[in-house]
Amino acid sequence: MDARPTAAPIELHAFMGLADLFRERGWGNPHFLPLTAEAMPGPALLDMLEIPAARVEVLFVNRKAVAVAHATIRPGDRVALVPPGVPGPHRFLLGFKNA
């Protein structure tokens, strides 16, 4: 039996201006991205996607708000990219009021 990890796509969702970026690139929303690494830090994901870190304030990884620098993405995860500029009350409801 082969013990190597298999590639499993991550499901990427983009909000606000990042959704426009996905459309410009011809990506769906969600966009499915194969991930063969066992785990990938948030900044590395943004590098892979060629999205500047300044355009993403927070990631949701499997529905939990995480600062990009502290995020770890694994094959099969659901990831949402949220840009800066989310209004105050929504920040609280989404769980990243202190981000």
Characterize this entry briefly.
With 99 residues, this protein is α+β, with helices and mostly antiparallel strands. The protein has helices spanning 17-24, 42-49, 88-94, and strands spanning 8-14, 31-35, 40-41, 58-61, 64-67, 72-73, 78-82.
Q: Mind explaining what this structure looks like?
A:
- There is one protein chain.
- This protein is of the alpha+beta class and 99 residues long.
- It is built from 3 helices and 7 strands, in the order βαββαββββα.
- The chain has one domain: Ubiquitin-like (UB roll) (Roll).
- Strands 2-1-7-4-5 form a 5-stranded mixed sheet. It has a two-stranded antiparallel ribbon with strand order 3-6.
- The longest helix has 8 residues.
- The chain is globular and about 30 Å long.
- The termini are far apart.
Strands, helices and their partners?
Layout: E1 8-14, H1 17-24, E2 31-35, E3 40-41, H2 42-49, E4 58-61, E5 64-67, E6 72-73, E7 78-82, H3 88-94
Parallel strand pairs: 1-7
Antiparallel strand pairs: 1-2, 3-6, 4-5, 4-7
Please tally the helical runs, counting DSSP H or I stretches of 4 or more residues: 3
Query: How would you sum up the major sheet?
Result: 5 strands, mixed
> How many domain regions?
1
Instruction: Give the H and E element order.
Output: EHEEHEEEEH
Strand order of the largest sheet: 2-1-7-4-5
CATH 2nd-level architecture: Roll
Low-confidence stretches: none
Name the helicity range: 10-25%
Number of strands: 7
**CATH topology, what is it called?**
Ubiquitin-like (UB roll)
CA-to-CA gap between the ends? 44 Å
Name the average pLDDT: 84
In CATH, what is the class? Alpha Beta
The structure class reads: alpha+beta
Calculate Rg over CA atoms. 14 Å
Content of β-strand: 25-35%
Coarse morphology? globular
